[in-house]
Amino acid sequence: MANSLPSSFLKKIREHRARVGVIGLGYVGLPLLVEFAKKGFRATGIDVAAEKVRSIQAGVSYIPDIPSRDLAPLVRSGRLRATTSWAVLKDLDGVMICVPTPLRKTRDPDISYILAAAKPLAQHLHRHQVIILESTTYPGTTEEVILPLLSETGLTVGKDFFLGFSPERIDPGNPDFATPNIPKVVSGVTANCRRAIQALYSEVIEKVIPVSSTRVAEMVKLLENTFRSVNIGLVNELALMCHRMGVDVWEVIDAAKSKPFGFMPFYPGPGLGGHCIPIDPLYLSWKAKIHGFEPRFIELASQVNASMPEHVVERVGEILNRKGQALKGSRVLILGVAYKRNVSDTRESPALEVIQHLIRQGARVDYHDPYVPRVKANGASLRSVPLTPAALAAAHCVVVVTDHQTVDYPKVVRHARAVLDTRNALRQMRPLAKVTKL
Ligand SMILES: NC(=O)c1ccc[n+]([C@@H]2O[C@H](COP(=O)([O-])OP(=O)(O)OC[C@H]3O[C@@H](n4cnc5c(N)ncnc54)[C@H](O)[C@@H]3O)[C@@H](O)[C@H]2O)c1
Predict the structure, then answer these.
(1) Which atom from ligand 1 is nearest to the alpha carbon of 137?
(2) DSSP one-letter code for 26
(3) pLDDT in tens, the chain (438 residues)
(4) Regarding beta strands 161-165 and 184-188, do their DSSP bridges make them parallel or antiparallel, or are they unpaired?
(5) What is the CATH code for 232-437?
(6) Which CA distances in Å does 272 have to 115, 339, 369?
(7) Which residue's alpha carbon is nearest to atom 11 within ligand 1?
(8) Within 13 Å, how many C-alpha atoms sit on residue 101's CB side?
(9) Which residues line ligand 1 (CB under 6 A)?
(10) What residues does each domain of the chain span?
(11) Among 1, 79, 352, 399, which is least packed, fewest CB within 10 Å?
Protein backbone atom coordinates (compact mmCIF):
# COMPACT_ATOMS: atom_id res chain seq x y z
CA MET A 1 0.00 0.00 0.00
CA ALA A 2 1.37 3.42 -0.94
CA ASN A 3 2.31 5.87 1.75
CA SER A 4 -0.86 7.88 2.11
CA LEU A 5 0.09 9.92 5.13
CA PRO A 6 -0.76 13.58 4.63
CA SER A 7 2.37 15.54 3.71
CA SER A 8 1.45 18.32 6.16
CA PHE A 9 1.44 15.71 8.94
CA LEU A 10 4.88 14.35 7.97
CA LYS A 11 6.28 17.87 7.58
CA LYS A 12 5.13 18.78 11.09
CA ILE A 13 6.99 15.74 12.45
CA ARG A 14 10.16 16.34 10.42
CA GLU A 15 10.27 19.99 11.49
CA HIS A 16 9.67 18.94 15.13
CA ARG A 17 6.57 21.11 15.28
CA ALA A 18 4.39 18.13 16.29
CA ARG A 19 3.26 18.29 19.90
CA VAL A 20 3.88 15.07 21.74
CA GLY A 21 2.58 13.75 25.02
CA VAL A 22 3.46 10.91 27.36
CA ILE A 23 0.93 9.36 29.74
CA GLY A 24 2.67 7.94 32.84
CA LEU A 25 5.86 9.70 33.88
CA GLY A 26 7.81 6.91 35.57
CA TYR A 27 11.05 5.09 34.74
CA VAL A 28 9.90 4.72 31.12
CA GLY A 29 7.75 7.77 30.46
CA LEU A 30 9.90 10.57 31.85
CA PRO A 31 13.07 9.66 29.87
CA LEU A 32 10.97 9.42 26.68
CA LEU A 33 9.35 12.79 27.32
CA VAL A 34 12.75 14.38 28.02
CA GLU A 35 14.17 12.94 24.78
CA PHE A 36 11.42 14.50 22.67
CA ALA A 37 11.86 17.86 24.42
CA LYS A 38 15.65 17.70 23.96
CA LYS A 39 15.10 17.25 20.24
CA GLY A 40 13.01 20.43 20.14
CA PHE A 41 9.48 19.01 20.26
CA ARG A 42 6.96 20.58 22.62
CA ALA A 43 6.47 17.73 25.08
CA THR A 44 3.67 17.37 27.61
CA GLY A 45 3.60 14.72 30.30
CA ILE A 46 0.40 13.56 31.96
CA ASP A 47 0.38 11.67 35.25
CA VAL A 48 -2.24 10.98 37.90
CA ALA A 49 0.40 11.48 40.62
CA ALA A 50 0.17 15.19 41.46
CA GLU A 51 3.48 15.13 43.38
CA LYS A 52 5.35 13.90 40.29
CA VAL A 53 3.77 16.60 38.16
CA ARG A 54 4.69 19.26 40.73
CA SER A 55 8.24 17.97 40.87
CA ILE A 56 8.66 18.10 37.08
CA GLN A 57 7.15 21.57 36.91
CA ALA A 58 9.73 22.62 39.53
CA GLY A 59 12.49 21.13 37.35
CA VAL A 60 13.28 18.44 39.92
CA SER A 61 13.72 14.89 38.63
CA TYR A 62 12.80 11.82 40.69
CA ILE A 63 14.29 9.36 38.17
CA PRO A 64 18.01 8.77 38.82
CA ASP A 65 18.83 8.46 35.07
CA ILE A 66 17.39 11.93 34.39
CA PRO A 67 19.42 14.51 36.30
CA SER A 68 17.54 17.66 37.33
CA ARG A 69 20.21 19.66 35.52
CA ASP A 70 18.91 18.16 32.25
CA LEU A 71 15.23 18.47 33.13
CA ALA A 72 15.13 22.00 34.57
CA PRO A 73 16.28 23.91 31.44
CA LEU A 74 13.69 22.06 29.33
CA VAL A 75 10.93 23.08 31.74
CA ARG A 76 12.21 26.67 31.93
CA SER A 77 12.31 26.95 28.14
CA GLY A 78 8.65 25.87 27.97
CA ARG A 79 9.48 22.85 25.82
CA LEU A 80 8.54 20.35 28.54
CA ARG A 81 5.67 20.53 30.95
CA ALA A 82 3.64 18.15 33.07
CA THR A 83 0.01 18.13 34.09
CA THR A 84 -2.66 15.99 35.72
CA SER A 85 -5.26 17.28 33.27
CA TRP A 86 -6.49 15.15 30.37
CA ALA A 87 -7.74 18.23 28.53
CA VAL A 88 -4.25 18.73 27.00
CA LEU A 89 -4.81 15.60 24.89
CA LYS A 90 -6.92 17.55 22.42
CA ASP A 91 -3.83 19.60 21.42
CA LEU A 92 -1.39 16.71 21.07
CA ASP A 93 -0.33 15.17 17.75
CA GLY A 94 1.33 12.08 19.24
CA VAL A 95 0.69 10.35 22.57
CA MET A 96 2.65 7.52 24.15
CA ILE A 97 1.13 5.39 26.91
CA CYS A 98 3.72 4.39 29.55
CA VAL A 99 1.57 3.31 32.50
CA PRO A 100 2.26 0.33 34.78
CA THR A 101 1.23 -3.22 33.81
CA PRO A 102 1.44 -5.19 37.06
CA LEU A 103 -0.11 -8.53 38.02
CA ARG A 104 -3.26 -9.04 40.02
CA LYS A 105 -3.10 -10.98 43.29
CA THR A 106 -4.11 -14.02 41.20
CA ARG A 107 -0.92 -13.48 39.07
CA ASP A 108 -3.04 -12.56 36.03
CA PRO A 109 -2.36 -9.39 33.96
CA ASP A 110 -3.76 -6.17 35.37
CA ILE A 111 -4.33 -3.86 32.40
CA SER A 112 -6.58 -1.47 34.35
CA TYR A 113 -3.95 1.30 34.05
CA ILE A 114 -3.95 0.96 30.25
CA LEU A 115 -7.75 1.16 30.24
CA ALA A 116 -7.67 4.19 32.53
CA ALA A 117 -5.40 5.95 30.01
CA ALA A 118 -7.26 4.77 26.89
CA LYS A 119 -10.65 6.12 27.99
CA PRO A 120 -9.64 9.83 28.11
CA LEU A 121 -7.65 9.26 24.93
CA ALA A 122 -10.88 8.16 23.22
CA GLN A 123 -12.68 11.25 24.53
CA HIS A 124 -10.08 13.58 23.04
CA LEU A 125 -9.11 11.61 19.91
CA HIS A 126 -8.86 13.80 16.84
CA ARG A 127 -7.85 13.62 13.20
CA HIS A 128 -4.27 12.52 12.53
CA GLN A 129 -3.46 11.88 16.17
CA VAL A 130 -0.88 9.12 16.72
CA ILE A 131 -1.39 6.85 19.74
CA ILE A 132 1.42 4.48 20.76
CA LEU A 133 1.20 1.91 23.54
CA GLU A 134 4.59 1.43 25.21
CA SER A 135 3.58 -0.47 28.34
CA THR A 136 4.63 -4.12 28.25
CA THR A 137 1.58 -6.30 27.80
CA TYR A 138 0.24 -9.53 26.29
CA PRO A 139 0.00 -9.96 22.51
CA GLY A 140 -3.32 -8.59 21.30
CA THR A 141 -3.77 -5.75 23.80
CA THR A 142 -3.41 -2.94 21.25
CA GLU A 143 -5.92 -4.38 18.81
CA GLU A 144 -8.28 -6.13 21.22
CA VAL A 145 -8.44 -3.54 23.98
CA ILE A 146 -7.37 -0.09 22.77
CA LEU A 147 -8.54 -0.16 19.16
CA PRO A 148 -12.23 -0.88 19.99
CA LEU A 149 -12.27 1.98 22.51
CA LEU A 150 -10.78 4.45 20.03
CA SER A 151 -12.94 3.20 17.17
CA GLU A 152 -16.12 3.96 19.15
CA THR A 153 -15.41 7.62 18.32
CA GLY A 154 -16.38 6.92 14.71
CA LEU A 155 -12.87 7.79 13.51
CA THR A 156 -11.15 5.20 11.29
CA VAL A 157 -7.80 3.73 12.23
CA GLY A 158 -5.08 4.18 9.60
CA LYS A 159 -6.97 7.04 7.98
CA ASP A 160 -8.25 9.41 10.66
CA PHE A 161 -5.95 8.34 13.48
CA PHE A 162 -2.90 6.10 13.87
CA LEU A 163 -2.44 3.42 16.51
CA GLY A 164 0.46 1.10 17.24
CA PHE A 165 2.65 -0.62 19.78
CA SER A 166 6.32 0.02 20.45
CA PRO A 167 7.99 -1.94 23.24
CA GLU A 168 10.07 0.02 25.70
CA ARG A 169 13.55 -1.37 26.33
CA ILE A 170 15.05 1.14 28.74
CA ASP A 171 17.47 -0.32 31.26
CA PRO A 172 17.53 1.95 34.34
CA GLY A 173 21.03 2.56 35.67
CA ASN A 174 22.73 1.50 32.41
CA PRO A 175 25.33 4.17 31.60
CA ASP A 176 25.89 2.94 28.01
CA PHE A 177 22.36 2.66 26.68
CA ALA A 178 19.53 5.18 27.07
CA THR A 179 16.45 6.20 25.05
CA PRO A 180 18.19 7.62 21.93
CA ASN A 181 20.64 4.76 21.32
CA ILE A 182 18.45 1.77 22.18
CA PRO A 183 17.03 0.47 18.86
CA LYS A 184 13.25 0.77 18.90
CA VAL A 185 10.83 -1.78 17.45
CA VAL A 186 7.68 -0.14 16.06
CA SER A 187 4.40 -1.48 14.72
CA GLY A 188 1.02 -0.21 13.63
CA VAL A 189 -2.50 -1.55 13.36
CA THR A 190 -2.32 -0.63 9.65
CA ALA A 191 0.64 0.10 7.37
CA ASN A 192 -0.13 3.81 7.62
CA CYS A 193 -0.15 3.61 11.42
CA ARG A 194 3.28 1.98 11.33
CA ARG A 195 4.61 4.62 8.95
CA ALA A 196 3.31 7.44 11.15
CA ILE A 197 4.90 5.94 14.26
CA GLN A 198 8.15 5.19 12.45
CA ALA A 199 8.27 8.79 11.22
CA LEU A 200 7.78 10.15 14.73
CA TYR A 201 10.31 7.93 16.51
CA SER A 202 12.92 8.28 13.76
CA GLU A 203 13.27 11.92 14.82
CA VAL A 204 14.47 11.04 18.32
CA ILE A 205 15.81 7.48 18.19
CA GLU A 206 18.87 6.45 16.20
CA LYS A 207 17.53 3.14 14.94
CA VAL A 208 13.89 2.23 14.42
CA ILE A 209 12.90 -1.31 13.44
CA PRO A 210 9.45 -1.72 11.87
CA VAL A 211 7.63 -5.04 12.27
CA SER A 212 4.51 -6.26 10.51
CA SER A 213 1.90 -6.15 13.30
CA THR A 214 1.25 -4.93 16.82
CA ARG A 215 1.07 -8.56 17.99
CA VAL A 216 4.61 -9.17 16.75
CA ALA A 217 5.86 -6.05 18.54
CA GLU A 218 4.06 -7.02 21.76
CA MET A 219 5.59 -10.50 21.51
CA VAL A 220 9.10 -9.10 20.87
CA LYS A 221 9.17 -7.53 24.32
CA LEU A 222 7.85 -10.70 25.95
CA LEU A 223 10.46 -12.81 24.16
CA GLU A 224 13.25 -10.50 25.37
CA ASN A 225 12.17 -10.63 28.99
CA THR A 226 11.19 -14.30 28.96
CA PHE A 227 14.64 -15.04 27.52
CA ARG A 228 16.18 -13.32 30.54
CA SER A 229 13.86 -14.96 33.04
CA VAL A 230 14.44 -18.47 31.63
CA ASN A 231 18.22 -18.08 31.41
CA ILE A 232 18.44 -16.64 34.91
CA GLY A 233 16.20 -19.51 36.07
CA LEU A 234 18.55 -22.01 34.43
CA VAL A 235 21.63 -20.53 36.03
CA ASN A 236 19.89 -20.25 39.40
CA GLU A 237 19.10 -23.95 39.20
CA LEU A 238 22.71 -24.61 38.27
CA ALA A 239 23.76 -22.62 41.36
CA LEU A 240 21.54 -24.78 43.57
CA MET A 241 23.05 -27.92 41.99
CA CYS A 242 26.60 -26.63 42.33
CA HIS A 243 26.03 -25.88 46.01
CA ARG A 244 25.00 -29.49 46.60
CA MET A 245 28.02 -30.73 44.63
CA GLY A 246 30.52 -28.37 46.22
CA VAL A 247 31.32 -26.65 42.90
CA ASP A 248 31.84 -22.89 42.58
CA VAL A 249 29.15 -21.83 40.06
CA TRP A 250 30.80 -18.43 39.52
CA GLU A 251 34.04 -20.03 38.46
CA VAL A 252 32.09 -22.32 36.11
CA ILE A 253 30.35 -19.36 34.42
CA ASP A 254 33.57 -17.34 34.15
CA ALA A 255 35.31 -20.21 32.40
CA ALA A 256 32.29 -21.02 30.19
CA LYS A 257 32.08 -17.46 28.93
CA SER A 258 35.57 -17.76 27.42
CA LYS A 259 33.79 -19.61 24.59
CA PRO A 260 33.63 -16.99 21.84
CA PHE A 261 30.37 -18.26 20.30
CA GLY A 262 27.17 -20.03 21.35
CA PHE A 263 27.34 -19.04 25.01
CA MET A 264 26.09 -15.94 26.79
CA PRO A 265 26.73 -15.57 30.51
CA PHE A 266 23.86 -15.16 32.95
CA TYR A 267 24.46 -15.01 36.68
CA PRO A 268 22.66 -16.50 39.66
CA GLY A 269 21.40 -14.30 42.44
CA PRO A 270 18.92 -13.90 45.29
CA GLY A 271 15.92 -13.88 42.92
CA LEU A 272 14.33 -11.68 40.29
CA GLY A 273 13.09 -8.15 40.87
CA GLY A 274 11.88 -5.03 39.14
CA HIS A 275 8.73 -4.24 37.23
CA CYS A 276 9.64 -6.36 34.19
CA ILE A 277 11.44 -9.71 34.36
CA PRO A 278 9.40 -11.37 37.15
CA ILE A 279 6.10 -10.10 35.67
CA ASP A 280 6.21 -9.92 31.87
CA PRO A 281 6.59 -13.67 31.17
CA LEU A 282 3.40 -14.25 33.16
CA TYR A 283 1.55 -11.90 30.78
CA LEU A 284 2.65 -14.21 27.99
CA SER A 285 1.76 -17.46 29.76
CA TRP A 286 -1.69 -16.07 30.67
CA LYS A 287 -2.43 -15.31 27.02
CA ALA A 288 -0.94 -18.61 25.82
CA LYS A 289 -3.26 -20.50 28.20
CA ILE A 290 -6.27 -18.69 26.72
CA HIS A 291 -5.16 -20.17 23.41
CA GLY A 292 -5.04 -23.63 25.03
CA PHE A 293 -1.25 -23.72 25.21
CA GLU A 294 0.52 -24.58 28.49
CA PRO A 295 3.94 -22.88 28.51
CA ARG A 296 6.44 -24.92 30.50
CA PHE A 297 9.71 -22.96 30.45
CA ILE A 298 8.05 -19.78 31.74
CA GLU A 299 6.39 -21.47 34.70
CA LEU A 300 9.48 -23.49 35.59
CA ALA A 301 11.83 -20.49 35.44
CA SER A 302 9.37 -18.48 37.47
CA GLN A 303 9.26 -21.21 40.15
CA VAL A 304 13.05 -21.59 40.34
CA ASN A 305 13.61 -17.83 40.47
CA ALA A 306 10.90 -17.38 43.09
CA SER A 307 12.57 -20.00 45.30
CA MET A 308 15.86 -18.10 45.50
CA PRO A 309 15.07 -15.75 48.42
CA GLU A 310 14.24 -18.80 50.55
CA HIS A 311 17.47 -20.46 49.45
CA VAL A 312 19.39 -17.35 50.55
CA VAL A 313 17.81 -17.60 54.00
CA GLU A 314 18.68 -21.31 54.18
CA ARG A 315 22.28 -20.43 53.36
CA VAL A 316 22.33 -17.80 56.12
CA GLY A 317 21.03 -20.52 58.46
CA GLU A 318 23.88 -22.84 57.39
CA ILE A 319 26.51 -20.15 57.99
CA LEU A 320 25.14 -19.41 61.45
CA ASN A 321 24.77 -23.10 62.24
CA ARG A 322 28.48 -23.64 61.61
CA LYS A 323 29.11 -21.04 64.31
CA GLY A 324 26.66 -22.66 66.75
CA GLN A 325 24.24 -19.75 66.32
CA ALA A 326 20.53 -20.18 65.63
CA LEU A 327 18.80 -17.99 63.07
CA LYS A 328 16.25 -17.12 65.74
CA GLY A 329 17.71 -14.35 67.82
CA SER A 330 20.58 -13.65 65.38
CA ARG A 331 21.36 -10.25 63.86
CA VAL A 332 21.52 -10.06 60.08
CA LEU A 333 22.60 -7.03 58.05
CA ILE A 334 21.29 -6.93 54.47
CA LEU A 335 23.44 -5.00 52.00
CA GLY A 336 21.26 -3.61 49.22
CA VAL A 337 17.49 -3.77 48.95
CA ALA A 338 17.01 -2.31 45.44
CA TYR A 339 16.17 -4.98 42.86
CA LYS A 340 19.44 -4.38 41.02
CA ARG A 341 22.69 -2.49 41.39
CA ASN A 342 22.93 1.30 41.30
CA VAL A 343 19.16 1.96 41.25
CA SER A 344 16.68 2.96 43.95
CA ASP A 345 13.78 0.83 42.66
CA THR A 346 12.59 -1.82 45.16
CA ARG A 347 9.60 -3.13 43.18
CA GLU A 348 9.47 -6.94 43.45
CA SER A 349 12.94 -6.83 44.98
CA PRO A 350 14.06 -10.24 46.29
CA ALA A 351 15.65 -8.42 49.24
CA LEU A 352 12.19 -7.74 50.62
CA GLU A 353 11.38 -11.43 50.60
CA VAL A 354 14.73 -12.33 52.13
CA ILE A 355 14.03 -9.84 54.93
CA GLN A 356 10.52 -11.21 55.45
CA HIS A 357 11.73 -14.81 55.70
CA LEU A 358 14.47 -13.79 58.14
CA ILE A 359 12.10 -11.81 60.35
CA ARG A 360 9.57 -14.68 60.33
CA GLN A 361 12.30 -17.02 61.54
CA GLY A 362 13.10 -14.72 64.44
CA ALA A 363 16.19 -12.89 63.14
CA ARG A 364 16.71 -9.22 63.87
CA VAL A 365 17.27 -7.56 60.49
CA ASP A 366 18.91 -4.26 59.59
CA TYR A 367 19.77 -3.09 56.11
CA HIS A 368 22.05 -0.66 54.36
CA ASP A 369 21.31 0.71 50.88
CA PRO A 370 22.85 3.97 49.67
CA TYR A 371 19.92 4.46 47.26
CA VAL A 372 16.97 3.43 49.44
CA PRO A 373 16.50 5.34 52.72
CA ARG A 374 13.55 3.23 53.89
CA VAL A 375 11.55 0.16 52.95
CA LYS A 376 8.51 -1.74 54.16
CA ALA A 377 8.92 -5.46 54.73
CA ASN A 378 6.75 -7.84 56.72
CA GLY A 379 4.56 -4.92 57.77
CA ALA A 380 7.54 -3.22 59.41
CA SER A 381 9.10 0.00 58.18
CA LEU A 382 12.89 -0.24 58.13
CA ARG A 383 15.44 2.53 57.68
CA SER A 384 18.82 2.15 56.04
CA VAL A 385 21.52 2.09 58.73
CA PRO A 386 24.92 3.70 58.10
CA LEU A 387 27.58 1.21 57.03
CA THR A 388 29.81 1.68 60.08
CA PRO A 389 32.39 -0.79 61.42
CA ALA A 390 30.15 -1.17 64.48
CA ALA A 391 27.04 -2.01 62.40
CA LEU A 392 29.03 -4.57 60.41
CA ALA A 393 30.60 -6.17 63.47
CA ALA A 394 27.27 -6.30 65.31
CA ALA A 395 25.74 -8.60 62.68
CA HIS A 396 26.19 -12.36 62.98
CA CYS A 397 25.96 -12.43 59.19
CA VAL A 398 26.08 -9.76 56.48
CA VAL A 399 24.22 -10.67 53.28
CA VAL A 400 25.11 -8.92 50.02
CA VAL A 401 21.75 -8.97 48.20
CA THR A 402 22.33 -6.06 45.78
CA ASP A 403 25.83 -5.28 44.54
CA HIS A 404 25.72 -1.47 44.41
CA GLN A 405 29.07 -0.20 43.17
CA THR A 406 29.36 2.60 45.72
CA VAL A 407 29.51 0.21 48.69
CA ASP A 408 32.93 -0.07 50.32
CA TYR A 409 33.31 -3.88 50.10
CA PRO A 410 36.84 -4.06 51.57
CA LYS A 411 35.41 -2.34 54.64
CA VAL A 412 32.57 -4.87 54.75
CA VAL A 413 35.04 -7.76 54.69
CA ARG A 414 37.30 -6.10 57.30
CA HIS A 415 34.60 -5.67 59.91
CA ALA A 416 31.96 -8.34 59.23
CA ARG A 417 32.01 -11.59 61.16
CA ALA A 418 30.57 -13.60 58.23
CA VAL A 419 29.35 -12.61 54.77
CA LEU A 420 27.00 -14.38 52.37
CA ASP A 421 27.69 -12.89 48.93
CA THR A 422 24.73 -13.62 46.62
CA ARG A 423 26.15 -11.55 43.73
CA ASN A 424 29.84 -12.37 43.79
CA ALA A 425 30.46 -8.72 44.65
CA LEU A 426 33.58 -9.63 46.62
CA ARG A 427 35.25 -11.52 43.76
CA GLN A 428 38.11 -9.02 43.56
CA MET A 429 39.18 -9.88 47.09
CA ARG A 430 41.34 -12.88 47.85
CA PRO A 431 39.37 -15.91 49.08
CA LEU A 432 38.48 -15.33 52.70
CA ALA A 433 37.16 -17.90 55.12
CA LYS A 434 34.48 -15.55 56.35
CA VAL A 435 32.97 -15.00 52.87
CA THR A 436 30.54 -17.58 51.45
CA LYS A 437 29.39 -17.30 47.85
CA LEU A 438 25.85 -18.23 46.80
N1 LIG B 1 11.03 0.17 34.53
C2 LIG B 1 11.61 -0.42 33.51
O3 LIG B 1 12.81 -0.70 33.52
C4 LIG B 1 10.80 -0.79 32.27
C5 LIG B 1 11.51 -1.16 31.13
C6 LIG B 1 10.80 -1.49 29.98
C7 LIG B 1 9.41 -1.50 30.02
N8 LIG B 1 8.74 -1.16 31.14
C9 LIG B 1 7.28 -1.15 31.09
O10 LIG B 1 6.85 0.20 30.98
C11 LIG B 1 5.64 0.41 31.69
C12 LIG B 1 5.81 1.51 32.73
O13 LIG B 1 6.79 1.09 33.68
P14 LIG B 1 7.53 2.10 34.64
O15 LIG B 1 8.64 1.34 35.27
O16 LIG B 1 7.80 3.38 33.94
O17 LIG B 1 6.38 2.35 35.72
P18 LIG B 1 6.35 3.51 36.83
O19 LIG B 1 5.51 2.98 37.92
O20 LIG B 1 7.74 3.97 37.12
O21 LIG B 1 5.61 4.69 36.10
C22 LIG B 1 4.27 4.64 35.73
C23 LIG B 1 3.66 6.03 35.90
O24 LIG B 1 2.32 5.99 35.43
C25 LIG B 1 1.53 6.78 36.27
N26 LIG B 1 0.13 6.39 36.08
C27 LIG B 1 -0.51 5.31 36.58
N28 LIG B 1 -1.77 5.30 36.12
C29 LIG B 1 -1.91 6.37 35.32
C30 LIG B 1 -2.98 6.88 34.54
N31 LIG B 1 -4.16 6.27 34.49
N32 LIG B 1 -2.79 8.03 33.88
C33 LIG B 1 -1.61 8.67 33.92
N34 LIG B 1 -0.55 8.21 34.61
C35 LIG B 1 -0.71 7.08 35.30
C36 LIG B 1 2.09 6.52 37.65
O37 LIG B 1 1.75 7.56 38.56
C38 LIG B 1 3.61 6.49 37.35
O39 LIG B 1 4.17 7.78 37.44
C40 LIG B 1 5.27 -0.95 32.27
O41 LIG B 1 4.42 -1.61 31.37
C42 LIG B 1 6.60 -1.68 32.33
O43 LIG B 1 6.44 -3.07 32.27
C44 LIG B 1 9.42 -0.79 32.26
Answers:
(1) 41
(2) S
(3) 456 788 888 999 999 999 999 999 999 999 999 999 999 999 999 999 999 999 999 999 999 899 999 999 999 999 999 999 999 999 999 999 999 999 998 989 999 999 999 999 999 999 999 999 999 999 999 999 999 999 999 999 999 999 999 999 999 889 899 999 999 999 999 999 999 999 999 999 999 999 999 999 999 999 999 999 999 999 999 999 999 999 999 999 999 999 999 999 999 999 999 989 999 999 999 999 999 999 999 999 999 999 999 999 999 999 999 999 999 999 999 999 999 999 999 999 999 999 999 999 999 999 999 999 999 987 889 999 999 999 999 999 999 999 999 999 999 999 999 999 999 999 888 778 899 999
(4) antiparallel
(5) 3.40.50.720
(6) 27, 7, 18
(7) 135
(8) 27
(9) 23-29, 46-49, 52, 98-101, 113, 116-117, 135-136, 168, 170, 172, 275-276
(10) 7-212, 232-437
(11) 1
The rounded distance, in Å, linking the Cα atoms of 345 and 268 is 20
Give me the CATH topology for the region 7-212.
Rossmann fold (3.40.50)
Q: Which of 211, 203, 163 is nearest to 185 (CA)?
A: 211
Catalytic residue numbers, as ranges = 276
> Same CATH fold, 232-437 and 7-212?
yes
